[in-house]
Amino acid sequence: MTTPASTAAPAAAPAPVPKARFDWIPLALLGGLMAIGLPAIGSPSTWLALTVAGLAMGLIVFIIASGLTLVFGLMDVLNFGHGVFIALGAYIATTVLAAMSGFTASPLLGMNLVAVFAAMVAAMTLAGAVGWAFERVIVRPVYGLHLKQILITMGGMIVGEEIIKVIWGPLQIALPPPEALRGSVFIGDAAIEKLRLLAVVVGLAVFAAMGWVLARTKVGLLVRAGVQDREMVEALGYRVRRLFVGVFVTGSALAGLGGVLWGLYQQSVTPQIGAQVNVLIFIVIIIGGLGSTLGCFVGALLVGVLANYTGFLAPKVALFSTIGLMVAILLWRPRGLYPVTNR
Amino acid sequence: MPNRLLERTLSHDLPRSRWLALLLVAIFVALALAPVMLPGSKALGVAAKMLVFILLVASYDLLLGYTGIVSFAHTMFFGIGAYGVAIASTRLGAGWASVGIGVALALAASLVLSLVIGLFSLRVKAIFFAMITLAVAAAFQTLASQLSDFTGGEDGLTFRNPEWLSPAFEAFGFDGRHFSYWLLFVVVTLVFLALLRMVNSPFGRVLQAIRENDFRAEALGYRVVVYRTLSNVVAALVATLAGALLALWLRYTGPDTTLSFEIMLDILLIVVIGGMGTLYGAVIGSVLFVLAQNYLQDLLRLAAGAVEGVPVLAAVLTPDRWLLWLGVLFVLSVYHFPTGIVGRLRAWSSR
User: Fold this and answer.
1) Interface residues from chain B to A (CB-CB < 8 Å)
2) How crowded is residue B24: how many other Cβ atoms within 10 Å of its Cβ?
């Protein structure tokens, strides 16, 4: 992608720092998909509703998957137990929302949002804390050993799922959305569920915050540099390990947040929720390119939008659309939409 | 002379531990005589499940333990075998011909699918293959429940077996259940010995070399992709066979008995606890696991009864949480004894 800076002419002005050109094609793909969706679906209002639903789903998946892909990029660790944090977040939401029933039953939007916000904070805190323990106990002893990593994080997921069953019981728990967040708002003829708007808002906020941290702060710079070339960053005297723990904890907390949103979206929670979403997340980070945050974002939106369109147009095919998308993208770009160098 | 014969049969891969040898002989004899010794139908069912799992796990060990690849699509091939027999038996009517056709078609489907997956994704890192297979297996599971006209959807398919495997058949004082059991026993024994032969052949040595250092194996002139793909294909075919046997035994095939992710996790648990890279580990692990699955819950019920009233302990020791304890055992064995029970026994007797 980059071209080496020319050093030929000594008298010439210093060559400009080579800069990678931004790759617009995957974004164009997303736009193109939406554009094709409109005539295929026919009615603009249905199209709008489906697109918002798709974006909401995609953003939730992005929230969950972003931590995973960064963890992989930074330390070459793929956490197959990531799903546990999703389930944990969703279950904590059921507890918090049930405890704050005074707030959720109120017809005032503000009171409801306070309850949802409290659930999110609780889920993120606890999932982050559990993530820290998970990194210490499960992941740390097996750095650099891929096979053991896969096995041990899977084992961690089994144990985590069972512990969740011990605490909350093995059965499905209903997670009714708060009073004022039920139903839809109308934009023209298009009915858009309020919960989806909430997911879109939260998702965009997370994306913006993550973009800001990664692009504008020193920690973000180190994370990006660590993904590109860990040894070099270590040689410069930074402790990438410690950075990694931070990223792992943040990723777990985000998975907890995603779990809250996913649970509200499904309106019920089962202990198997983590394993189910895991598959979707893996597809998304493969599509995006392992380790790439932007790729994860575009991949998640593509998957979400496509799943909603095909779910409307051909429900039987919908379940395979994501797999089909993955295969098509890997045939086109074998290392994902935005391949990370050095991998 | 009989020693020689035994060595040839086991492909010179002897147990190398007196206790392991004793255990294996005991398991072999017990499984061979199960229909005579075990009167109850539950006990015979447990023994049959052990047989199927021995084959299934041994084939997975070829992938994980010998070649060093993690696949999550093993239950998919298991399911293809089971559905092959079930669909052929319901469509074409009960009989040996339909079982044969079902198995043949299932093997062909597994062959093509495993070849495609292998060539498509084994070129890259192990971690990538693990993720791709996870996705493909999930898609296959939804496919099986979507095509409900064909596969019976979530309810699955119940079908009739060829005549002398059906329970109503009687001869020499045994009924069809016993004959199906012995059919399973013979097939599992033969295929297991064939797998043992394979991992101890030059081909098996190359697989182990790839597991230890794929870069070096490539440098020595072995086409790593080809060997990995072959290993994947063989494992898939054996898993398909195991699925067909399970279907014949249960006379039923459904997503929960063959395709579910829980079974995939069970396979992983058994391979690691029994011992990766030793086919005997599959035998020991399967027997212990199936015993635990069926009887550990009774044991836990006793323990839970003893601590009734103690709040946390009682919740953790309920019989439904038996998988928790196996999961903990799994994590501990990956850390502390990655060679599993078999490796421990061998290390113990070589001391």
Assistant:
1) 64, 68, 70, 120, 124-128, 130-132, 134-136, 138-139, 142-143, 146, 261, 265, 268-269, 272, 315-316, 320-321, 323-324, 326-328, 330-331, 334-335, 338
2) 18
Interhelix angle for B41-61 vs B18-37, to 10°?
140
Q: List the Cα angle B334/B336/B338 in 5-degree steps.
A: 45
Between chain A and chain B, the number of residue pairs with CB atoms below 8 A apart is 90
What is the number of residues in chain B? 351
* Helix-then-strand count for chain B, H and E: 18, 4
Which token pair is B125?
């890192």
Rounded Cα distance between B69 and B130, Å, is: 8
Q: pTM of the prediction?
A: 0.81
Considering only CB atoms, A156 lies closest to which of B132, B331, B338, namely B331
Interface of A with B (CB under 8 A): 78, 80, 138, 141-142, 146-152, 154-156, 158-159, 162-163, 165-166, 170, 275, 278-279, 282-283, 285-286, 290, 316, 319-320, 322-323, 326, 330, 334
CATH, residue A70: 1.10.3470
Residue A261 domain-assigned (yes or no): yes
Q: Contact A150/B315, CB-based, under 8 Å?
A: no
Strand, coil or helix: B318: coil
- What are A37-92's pLDDT values in tens digits? 777 777 878 888 888 888 888 999 999 998 888 888 777 788 888 889 999 999 99
Task: Kindly state whether residue A162 falls inside one of the protein's structural domains.
Answer: yes
Q: Which residues contact A220 (CB under 8 A, 6 or more apart)?
A: A212, A213, A214
HSE-CB for B205 with a 13 A CA cutoff:
4
Residues A87-120 have pLDDT tens digits of 999 999 888 888 877 777 777 777 778 888 888 8
Measured over the CA atoms of residue B331, residue B332, residue B333 and residue B335, the dihedral's sign is positive
Could you tell me how far CA A205 lies from the centroid of its own chain? 13
Split into its structural domains, chain A has a count of 1
Task: Tell me, yes or no, whether A173 lies in a domain.
Answer: yes
Q: Which residues on B lie below 8 Å from A319 (Cβ)?
A: 139, 142-143, 146
Looking at the domain assignment, is residue A204 inside a domain? yes
Q: For the residues of A71-100, what is the DSSP string, one character each?
A: HHHHHS---TTHHHHHHHHHHHHHHHHHHT
Q: How many CB atoms lie within 10 A of CB A54?
A: 25
pLDDT digits (tens, 9 = 90+) for A161-206: 888 888 888 888 888 877 777 777 777 777 778 888 888 889 899 8
Shortest distance, CA A248 to any CA of chain B (angstroms): 18
